[in-house]
Write a structure and sequence with these properties.
alpha+beta, 3 helices, about 25% helix
Length: about 70
Amino acid sequence: MNKQALDLTMVTHDDALSLHISGTEFYQPVESAEFLALQDMAALDVASESPTVYRAEYLAYACWMRPNAG
């Protein structure tokens, strides 16, 4: 018997946005138009990235543009 706490997450499964119960094989495709409108954001690994700018590129730019402290 698994005593792991259950968590509900939203993941991409079979190329569709789905609800997933952690620790199980349960996936339920999302049908809500409000959530489906956010599906592109689900494809991002981290929130600080965008489809056009990788976060390391932004960090390098921010460091380059920062005036010297000394």
